[in-house]
């Protein structure tokens, strides 16, 4: 029998057009906590989905408790082998009780009736193993704090005899006290001999629980070893790794006067006291991990989300923005992150989409608000030429275009009006290289025209390549500001993971 | 040349053409079954009977394009009929009566707009509430009784003639009024900012909001248009019956859905053209009229109409999927 609970060798997985995993290795022992580390998109989740049977591998060997898995693994088989995942987003039926959730799909039935007493008894027993004695199995899960819900999910995993537990970002939505409690339970599990894969971006917390690390980058296996053999700098260097070549054309324009000033902006959990300035002739990049609060900050400025407090000063004047309509009128516009969900009316034509935010210009002040076809056509023509949108004509449905062309339509919407600040949230996500370069050129043009440009991007090379200044956020706060010409990805990553050591 | 082509190839036009083809086919079938059907003595009243269906089709159609639904349509018709008739019976000047009636009906539209657009109630629930309240108001108007005859004063007779009995050449004035209303809203939907906003919130309410569209205002506008159409349909019914009936307009919200959907408007929002509602309302009225003339008993008539409506929509869905399938 092998010394490993799980060993994965030479795992390869290809999605149409992308090699998600390329010759990846992973070795996990029973009674050990292994941190699986890597940037967003490094392939950690894909690897774990292969382990739990959600995806099937293209090639490679998978051995679980000495048993070589031939052929494809499905979720049922994986469960039977004792593999369970606790997802970042918990999978619970909020309205059902703790016991009902734990026994979901495996309810104990006696004489055609649910045997609630027995299920409650076993639920209590299972929770007690984790050192939880004060949780009533009849409570609705929705009434519990997130940390407690997570405990229920872990108890549920134990109920099916999970011997390999994958925890995906378990601390991301927990309070400090809850994190301490969660760590205690991880220690309990370890003592029971459970093998744990712990995925987290909160590097400062790892030393409390982690025994070994495996680092991935761009779908490839980079290194593994004992946690204590690495310094934090080495871990970050291995996660980031690549050299930045100058593939992003950055035109330098002298920095002009201050356009936008955001002061002490607060809006929900992920925008906590954010302040920054935007100047003419610069591209301000926003970097950070997914969920750092960058999108939320931009949405708050744009009036898309409720703001609790804070001041926004545009060209020296304090302005009030209650909704996107106000923001657009004042000259601050946002090209949102998810173009299908937020950027486009996919059922409507390209024409309608480009015209939609600019109908005030197109309609002028006539009585009924009649659309001036001539102005509209000129506007569409201008947008089409500036961005070389490939389309049969402007009347086809926007949803029928390719991703890159859809993104160009989203950008074209905002080029038609004289805005002071344009915010691009993940402007090149999922689009091809040629379209990316076009978007970068538009960004450069805007910069030269004296428009304030903010670019939120999770792609490190991109944000370093096109920005003149980068603000790094973590957990709803600004944790650093760097000059991309003088900094390294490692430095940004250090700021981006400054959650602080929250465990006590 | 190019312009005409783009008119016929506009998105949604295929569904509209299917609906008009349906109208033609029904006309031919009924003309064969009963030669009297195609005579002007039948077609002229038939055109008049389309009016209420077309009005609710316009109102419900526009609300559907925003991605919502208006269940209060039938009750607003009942309110409109009962309030106008009660006031006239009590000696109020008919013009003033209509103005008061108008205000009352528009309040319902406003409430729908606030409930759905501002408080984000599911439209089915919000307008279910106003539907029940509206019917209650219709009953309350004359103390839970239908009204008596609205009389023969010159102004009252004028009102009844304009909204029902009088015609200019082949066209009843009520048909002209309905077509003018259709024309105005068709213009608004296709050529104005308000229309674009209505389509945009039905297609993707988040994207519309992030493009600066005021979702509350736009939703309210759609419900106000719907209330206005129901108000007008109610007046036609008052004029026709010469009295107020508490049950007037019952189920008309569903006739509105039928007219809109047969005409190619999706209940999911964001697509459809108002020009289709004319065909949709016509199909409905022609079926009622044609089957009656073919001596089909009322119960069987309902079953046949129900089946035909479902089949019409199924054909349209199949056609759309077929086209989508080809593209893939």
What does this structure look like?
- The complex is a heterodimer of chains A (504) and B (328).
- Chain A has helices spanning 44-51, 75-80, 98-102, 116-129, 146-159, 176-191, 232-240, 294-302, 324-330, 339-343, 350-355, 359-363, 373-387, 403-415, 433-448, 460-466, 489-496; strands spanning 6-15, 18-28, 33-37, 59-64, 67-68, 83-86, 109-110, 113-114, 164-168, 195-199, 212-217, 220-226, 258-266, 272-279, 283-288, 309-314, 317-319, 332-335, 421-425, 452-456, 469-474, 477-482.
- With 504 residues, chain A is of the alpha/beta class.
- Chain A has a six-stranded mixed β-sheet, with helices on both faces. A six-stranded mixed β-sheet of chain A has the order 18-19-20-15-21-22, sandwiched between helices. Chain A has a four-stranded antiparallel β-sheet with strand order 2-1-4-5, with helices on one face.
- The radius of gyration of chain A is 26 Å and the shape is globular.
- Chain A starts with 5 loop residues before the first strand and ends in an 8-residue tail after the last helix.
- With 328 residues, chain B is mainly alpha-helical.
- Chain B has 14 helices and two strands; from the N terminus they run H-H-H-H-H-H-H-E-E-H-H-H-H-H-H-H.
- In chain B, helix 3 (40-65) packs antiparallel against helix 11 (215-241) and helix 12 packs across helix 13.
- Chain B is globular.
Short descriptors:
heterodimer; A: 504 residues; alpha/beta; six-stranded mixed beta sheet; 17 helices; globular; B: 328 residues; mainly alpha; two-stranded antiparallel sheet; 1% strand; disordered C terminus
Query: Quick check: average pLDDT of chain B?
Result: 91
Beginning-to-end CA distance, first to last residue of chain B? 30 Å
Major sheet summary line of chain B: 2 strands, antiparallel
Helix content bin of chain A? 25-40%
Main pleated-sheet profile of chain A: 6 strands, mixed
Count of strand segments of chain A? 22
| Strand residue percentage of chain B | under 5%
Q: Taking all residues together, what is the mean pLDDT of chain A?
A: 88
């Amino acid at each position: 029998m092998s010394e490993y609970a799980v060993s994965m060798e030479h795992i390869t997985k290809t999605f149409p057009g992308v090699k998600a995993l390329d010759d990846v290795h992973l070795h996990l022992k029973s009674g050990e906590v292994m941190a699986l580390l890597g940037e967003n998109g490094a392939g950690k989740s894909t690897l774990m989905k292969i382990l739990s049977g959600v995806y099937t591998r293209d090639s490679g060997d998978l051995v679980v408790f000495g048993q070589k898995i031939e052929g494809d693994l499905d979720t049922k088989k994986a469960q039977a082998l004792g593999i369970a995942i606790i997802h970042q987003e918990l999978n619970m039926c909020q309205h059902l009780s703790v016991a009902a959730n734990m026994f979901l799909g495996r309810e104990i039935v006696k004489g055609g009736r649910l045997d609630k007493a027995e299920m409650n008894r076993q639920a209590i027993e299972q929770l007690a193993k984790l050192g939880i004695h004060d949780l009533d199995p009849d409570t609705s899960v929705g009434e519990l704090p997130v940390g407690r819900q997570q405990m229920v999910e872990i108890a549920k995993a134990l109920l099916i005899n999970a011997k390999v537990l994958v925890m995906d970002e378990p601390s991301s939505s927990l309070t400090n006290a809850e994190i301490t409690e969660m760590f205690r339970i991880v220690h309990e599990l370890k003592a029971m001999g459970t093998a744990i894969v712990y995925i987290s971006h909160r590097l400062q917390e790892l030393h409390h629980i982690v025994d070994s690390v495996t680092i991935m980058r761009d779908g490839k296996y980079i290194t593994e070893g004992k946690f204590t053999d690495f310094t934090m700098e080495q871990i970050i260097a291995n996660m980031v790794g690549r050299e930045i070549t100058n593939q992003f054309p950055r035109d330098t324009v002298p920095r002009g006067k201050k356009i936008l000033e955001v002061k002490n902006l607060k809006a929900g959990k992920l925008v906590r006291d954010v302040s920054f300035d935007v100047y003419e002739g610069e591209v301000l990049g926003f970097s950070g991990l997914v969920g750092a609060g960058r999108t939320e900050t931009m949405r708050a400025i744009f009036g898309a989300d409720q703001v609790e407090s804070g001041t926004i000063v545009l060209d020296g004047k304090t302005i009030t923005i209650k909704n996107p309509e106000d923001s657009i009128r004042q000259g601050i516009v946002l090209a949102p992150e998810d173009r299908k969900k937020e950027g486009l009316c996919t059922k409507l034509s390209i024409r309608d989409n480009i015209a939609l935010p600019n109908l005030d210009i197109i309609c002028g002040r006539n009585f009924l608000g009649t659309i001036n076809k001539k102005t509209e056509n000129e506007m569409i023509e201008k947008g089409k030429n500036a961005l070389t949108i490939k389309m049969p004509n402007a009347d086809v449905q926007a949803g029928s275009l390719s991703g890159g062309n859809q993104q160009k339509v989203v950008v074209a919407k905002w080029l038609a009006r004289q805005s002071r600040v344009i915010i691009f949230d993940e402007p090149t996500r999922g689009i091809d290289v040629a379209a990316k370069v076009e978007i970068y050129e538009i960004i450069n043009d805007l910069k030269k025209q004296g428009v304030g440009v903010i670019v939120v991007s999770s792609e490190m090379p991109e944000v370093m390549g096109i920005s003149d200044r980068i603000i790094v956020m973590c957990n709803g706060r600004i944790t650093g500001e760097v000059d991309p010409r003088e900094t390294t990805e490692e430095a940004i990553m250090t700021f981006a993971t400054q959650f602080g050591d929250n465990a006590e | 040349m190019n312009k005409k082509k783009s008119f016929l190839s506009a998105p949604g036009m295929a569904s509209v053409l299917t609906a008009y083809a349906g109208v033609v086919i029904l006309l031919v079938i009924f003309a064969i079954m009963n030669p009297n059907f195609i005579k002007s003595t039948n077609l002229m009243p038939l055109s008049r009977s389309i009016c209420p269906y077309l009005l609710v089709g316009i109102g419900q159609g526009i609300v559907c394009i925003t991605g919502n639904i208006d269940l209060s349509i039938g009750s607003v018709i009942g309110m409109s009929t009962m309030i106008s008739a009660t006031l006239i019976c009590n000696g109020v000047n008919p013009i003033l009566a209509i103005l008061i009636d108008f205000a009352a009906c528009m309040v319902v539209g406003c409430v729908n707009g606030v409930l759905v657009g501002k408080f984000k109630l599911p439209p089915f629930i919000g307008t279910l509430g106003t539907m029940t309240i509206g019917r209650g108001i219709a009953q309350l108007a004359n103390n839970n009784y239908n009204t008596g005859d609205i009389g023969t004063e010159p102004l009252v007779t004028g009102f009844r003639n304009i909204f029902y009995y009088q015609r200019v050449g082949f066209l009843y004035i009520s048909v002209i009024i309905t077509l003018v209303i259709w024309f105005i809203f068709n213009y608004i939907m296709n050529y104005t900012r308000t229309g674009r906003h209505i389509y945009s919130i039905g297609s993707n309410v988040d994207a519309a909001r992030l493009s600066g569209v005021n979702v509350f205002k736009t939703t309210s506008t759609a419900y106000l248009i719907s209330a206005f159409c129901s108000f007008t349909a109610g007046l036609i019914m008052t004029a026709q019956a010469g009295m107020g009936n508490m049950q007037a307009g019952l189920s008309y919200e569903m006739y509105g859905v039928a007219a809109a959907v047969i005409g190619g408007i999706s209940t999911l929002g964001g697509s459809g053209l108002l020009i289709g509602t004319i065909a949709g309302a016509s199909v409905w009225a022609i079926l009622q009229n044609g089957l009656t003339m073919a001596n089909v008993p009322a119960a069987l008539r309902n079953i046949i109409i129900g089946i035909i409506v479902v089949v019409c929509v199924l054909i349209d869905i199949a056609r759309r999927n077929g086209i989508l399938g080809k593209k893939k």
